[in-house]
Amino acid sequence: MYDVKGNLRKVLGDLPDGVRLVAISKYHPNEYIMAAYEEGQRVFGESHEQELRQKVESLPKDIEWHFIGHLQTNKVKYIAPYIQMVEAVDSLKLLREINKQAAKHERTIKVLLELHIAEEETKYGLTLDACRQLLEDGEWRELKNVQICGLMMMASYVDDVEQIRSEMMLASDFFDEVKERYFKDDPCFCERSWGMSHDYPIAVECHSTMVRVGTSIFGPRIY
To answer: Are 151 and 192 a contacting pair, CB within 8 Å?
Structure first.
């Protein structure tokens, strides 16, 4: 078996206090997740509703499940009973649907707003102006079953460290702007989620509070 425990210890050793690890477990078997769980890891990220549901049913109940990647509105109802956080909200439509489905289960679901900053054409995420507009319009304040807890982004998948750093710092500066303007008195708006297996050490330097690491812990995905 892949040395999940050793890899997890190494990643955690790289993270300073105040930076949480979301272990990206999609396409990895339950025994890998349990190996990380036995080391004390409790936050895991999945991106496929059916795989996630199977894992929720068969793994310990104190795991905090995050939905990562693009979430279609028609899938929200399936994960609403148990998901703790949706990490990539890229539209008001999706925010409304999460609120609606969370309300049915008398739950509040935490969300992060996804920014599209990377220069490569990723499909999803709000531009900075679109994010400003969504917050300025204010409808989100009426949605009582979702809680906006911060921002997330993916830097360009490149070797250029300075490009990665500049994109992450842009996101960090934007977080400060949004916090000051819309969430000044809301301690729950505190998460800066950037950093993955290939760039999480840079993310830590760029004020990330939450990194999403999969391959460096679990190895290549098992499809």
So the answer is: yes
Q: How far, in Å, CA of 126 to CA of 116, rounded?
A: 5
Q: Give me the sign of the Cα torsion angle 96, 170, 154, 81.
A: negative
| Residues β-bridged to residue 151 | 113, 192
DSSP H helices, the chain, are 4-14, 30-38, 49-58, 76-79, 92-104, 128-137, 161-182, 200-205, 215-218
Q: Could you tell me where the DSSP H helices lie in 138-199?
A: 161-182
Length of the chain: 223
What pTM value is reported for the model?
A: 0.95
Four-residue CA torsion sign, 135, 141, 142, 144 = positive
Torsion-angle region of residue 3: left (phi > 0), alpha (psi -120 to 50) or beta?
Answer: beta
As a whole number of Å, the CA-based R_g of the chain is: 17
Query: Which residues face 113 on adjacent strands?
Result: 89, 151
In the DSSP assignment, the letter for residue 73 is: G
Q: Rounded to an integer, what distance in angstroms lies between the CA atom of residue 42 and that of residue 22? A: 8
> Model confidence over 91-135: pLDDT tens digits?
999 999 999 999 999 999 999 999 999 877 766 899 999 999 999
Q: Return the pLDDT at 122.
A: 65
Instruction: Name the pLDDT band for 183 (thresholds 50, 70, 90).
Output: very high
- Closest C-alpha to 89, from 45, 152, 136: 152
The secondary structure element, H or E, covering residue 151 is strand 146-153
Task: Give the span between the Cα atoms of 173 and 154, in whole angstroms.
Answer: 15
